[in-house]
Amino acid sequence: MACPIAVTGIGLVTPGGIGTDATWKAVCGGCSTARTDPQLKGLPVDFSCRVPGFDADSVPGIRQPWRYDRSTQLLLAAAAEALRSAHLDPADWDPSRVALVVGSAAGGISTLETQYRKFLDRGPRNLSPLTLTGYLPNMAAGHLTLVLGITGPALQTSTACASGASAVITACLLLDAGLCDIALAAGCDVMTTPFCAAAFAKMGALSRRTHDPERASRPFDRHRDGFVLGEGSAVIVLERTPHATARQVCPRAHVVGHATTSDAHHATTPHPEGRGLRSAVLQTLRAADAAVGDVDHINAHGTSTLLNDRTEAAVIRALFQSRKPSITSAKGVLGHTMGAAGAIEAALTVMSLEQQVVPPVANFTEPDEAADGLDLVTGQARRQNLRLALSHSLGFGGHNTVLAFASVP
Fold this sequence. Notes:
Blueprint: E1 5-14, E2 17-18, H1 20-29, E3 35-36, E4 47-48, H2 70-85, E5 98-103, H3 109-122, H4 131-135, H5 139-148, E6 154-157, H6 163-176, E7 182-190, H7 194-202, E8 231-240, H8 241-246, E9 253-262, H9 275-287, E10 297-299, H10 306-319, E11 326-328, H11 331-334, H12 341-355, E12 357-358, E13 375-376, E14 382-383, E15 388-395, E16 399-406
Parallel strand pairs: 5-6, 5-7, 10-11, 10-15, 11-13
Antiparallel strand pairs: 1-2, 1-8, 1-9, 3-4, 7-8, 9-16, 12-14, 15-16
């Protein structure tokens, strides 16, 4: 990278709770948030991980919250916290020098499902005039620019479950190119809907542990049988380092490298040898001017699906033979928040560097054969000296995205 990018703010709204403190406490506690979901009643998989106690009316800057899809509501809440933590006030910045990149796999799918059902049951006259502005994938970014008055680049990335991480990379590229001084990189998705749950269940991606949902998401565990749908949002404030220095804001971490590759192998199945992920890791380390032995920690994609975990574990084993980094996955606690996951887990990686703590993998009892011998953090959170950490994100379509973060001395 031309220059390390400063991370100056974080906002989180996840199944672990509303705000970074609540989410961090949840993932460090290692207790699953999966519960039976009344909205999924009667489906083959009737449980999910939802944000508890979210009230859109209480979010600063949201007027008439019913105008927004739930995914946008979560994004607006996360953005408000991120700006507070970065000590930024939109009234004081040059809006033309601020960029926004939002990653999402499904856009306003909740709005689409609700309105399409209304269209079928009651006819076209009963559609809401807000259907398209609620559903179109770009509109989460569009609505946030309206709330914050941002007039710089506003983009949307969609690389399935890697979307939030792709947003971070795109924001870094905008900063490196000098097109902005501040960039908000975000992820948001609410695919905990009947249609999405039924579709994922049909393709065999979801855990069927309906009798014990809290133990359903089990990254890297021998007994895993699929992921658990989750919802959430994360916003990460990124700045050109000179800009953060001029504001006298201490970075929480630095983005020092990133890469994205494609498998070109299968629509949903990762390459059996993990070639795309391996390449992305090595490219990221080159960009960070780091070696494999410099990596202290990996926040893994770790979905709890059979093939993803096995492939990711095999890549880590092959690359990190000389020095084994600690490994965690937040999906045992938060479920799979889809397009938001890459941004949420990037934020958690930054917090690990700040706190010098690695959260545990929830529900882990026995390692899969491919994960045997890896330094998986289980049982309880671990204190560790962390200087360089990676965050992996993979998505349907063969997307592989890796981010490297360095701690601030």
